[in-house]
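User: Can you model how adenosine-5'-triphosphate sits in this protein?
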Amino acid sequence: PVNTLSGMQVSVMTALVSFDRVFEVLDLQPLIAERPDAESLPAAGQALAPEIAFDSVFFRYPSADEVSLASLENIALRRPERLDDSWTLDGMSFVAPAGKLTALVGPSGAGKTTITQLVPRLYDATQGAVRIGGRDIRDLTLQSLRDTVGVVTQEAHLFHDTLRANLLFARPDATEDDLVQACTAARIWDTVVALSDGLDTVVGDRGYRLSGGEKQRIALARLLLKSPPIVVLDEATAHLDSESEAAIQRALKSALAGRTSLVIAHRLSTIREADQILVVEAGRIRERGTHEELLEAGGLYAELYRTQFAQQSSDELQPEASAAG
Ligand code: ATP
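Assistant: Here's the modeled complex, given as structure tokens:
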């Protein structure tokens, strides 16, 4: 009984934490206002995926007081114009080129997640601007921004509903063929057909429980259905078995192809494939370049590589090395 009780406390605490998060996001919504003269970006698919640019972005998270004041009065956040050392993003400038993969790496707390939250406007820059295709994202309609930027976090959220409903959520007008194609490209279709009810299987806490790797591939299938020109992705850190690891890598590759992607990279295979790596530390870009260039430079990246990625390197390189030999 004691074990059951302590387990229950953990579940209750977890539930409360998620509620907090929900309210946190709801509270923030009034801060992200659409300008009356906001414009849309060209529809997806008509042009090359647009680039993302951070232009001297300073950012600090609003304090609890600022958030509640702003949501009570439904006004834009008034921010003190002071430049001190407490910036989460400290004058950050970079370009994530159109159609290319940009990987963000850096120590914990460096600001990588914050960068990815500014692109879909979960928060606005305190100073400076985030631009998509040269346009300040505050000048875009929220609908256009939502259609343009696809976000995949580490924890894919699935509703307690059928797999089909969970997928259609990304694109309500998708046909059966679209669903099959997306699931196939996300390397999850074989799993789906093996389930007793296929796409009509109910998933979620009280339904069929997908593994972490399966959930991520469902998230990628959703992304493919939505097909946004820009993808912001927090690559999963969870340890996966090697088969689902390889499946996810292939799924990722097809999901990101041709899109402008900004990825918090935890896997060596992703950073090696990146067209550009941005090394973030204390809210600034400390180094930028490709894997080879940064290793050569022997700076912070080389150090991170030794501490975070070298083990993955020996795991991944062994088969290649023997094939080459
Ligand atoms: P990690 O690799 O550990 O995920 P990160 O590089 O993604 O780290 P961020 O999550 O962007 O770093 O955090 C940057 C800083 O902002 C940290 O000091 C963190 O404590 C702070 N921070 C993050 N989210 C919030 C928030 N919602 N409110 C206040 N401060 C926050």
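A couple of observations from the model: Residues 2-28 form the longest helix (27 residues). Residues 309 and 315 are 10 Å apart (CA to CA).
User: Helpful, thanks.
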